[in-house]
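ESCALATION

Customer reports they have been waiting on this structure for their group meeting. Please prioritize. Original submission:
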Amino acid sequence: MRPIRKIVVLGANGAMGSGSGAVFASAGIPTVFLARTLEKAEAGRARAEQLSKGQVAPQSIGVGTYDSDLAHVAAEADLIFEAVAEDLEVKRQVFSLIDRIRSPGTIVATVSSGLSIAAMCNGLSEEFRKHFLGVHLFNPPTVIAGTEIIPHAGTDRSVVELMRHVLEATLGRVVIECADTPAFAGNRIGFKLLNEVAQLAEEHGVAYMDQLVGPHTGRALPPLATIDLVGWDVHQAIVDNLHANTNDEAHAAFELPLYMRRGIQRGHLGRKTKDKGGFFRVDGKGPDAVHFVLDTVTGDYRPLADVKPPIPSFIERMKAAIRSGRHPEALDVLCRAEGKDAAILRRVMLGYVSYALGRIGEVVTHPRDVDRIMGFGFNWAPPSVLVDAIGAPRTIELLEREGLPVPPVIGQAAEAGMPMCDRTIEPARFFVAA
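Update from on-call: job pushed to the front of the queue and completed.
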């Protein structure tokens, strides 16, 4: 396999195109940004330079348009990185064109967050299909190191290994390999929990659910604030894809709540629509800013200060343990706590553990694959961290009590009396007592 000495990014004006291009250029790989117009390509380059915080030399990124430059830069590229719209037919049209103009041996990668890799290259030349795979970087790529490689059945194994080497050794990524299944590993596991919390918010309220499933449970942001950051439209695309194309024990958890579907139709997409908001909306700036929260029943917004519920006492005890550096004690508090609040949170957390580790053998090969993508892709406490903190035998008991599937790997850990989590992962960093 030839080395990766020149990269072309298609869709370079988008968030993933410019962000991914910033990662390539920051590593010193000459990169060309292509878009429909030169103005859009220039905007992508400017955003990449901003994201890289001075690590990208202006001369390391070239710009051009599809009409004027695609044919000759694609012929010279070692890697063509596609980041156009997340639409299967749009991507297939792009790859059909690339198949005709690329040089033999050029690797083509899609940054798709969950579409079928095989479907994208179906019907194209064997040489193209051998050199085609998914490389899913998480947004923003300049901040989040977790990366999924997704070969399809026809991808040459040497292409997979070369891309893994480049991503790890040159670009500093934390890489796992996934099977070509809907939404791959990280988004399938992560958006199951996110959408489940969005469903629960319809009954219990937005402020209540984000307070309950907050950073003390091992995540950088509460779930509904995360959906606002991702964008309601992006969230819908991912869960609709999973609801349509998977049929496992979590199928119902991927059904987008009706209030969200209605909100999207009204243009409420989260942080990207500041005036309309998503689950939350902020009016004004600085100390005079007023924070509002969505009423899922009426679709109106109410001042957060008026509806924010009191913090349950068991959460205060969890936070106190975390502040003292004792996250296993915090999870022990959760396991022992009584009442409705604790029951809801246990169900969410145990559902995450069950579903994530249940994907081993289907989507990934090893528990560490799930742990690494959830830890370095989502910045969530990996499921094995939670099992080790609770204890494998106790985790099994709790899962059975909730009627949730017990993944075989937890049973194996309980039988062996050995920890599950990869030693390269520092568990305490995921828990925050904010």
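Sent to customer with the following note: The CA atoms of residues 96 and 123 lie 9 Å apart.
Escalation resolved.
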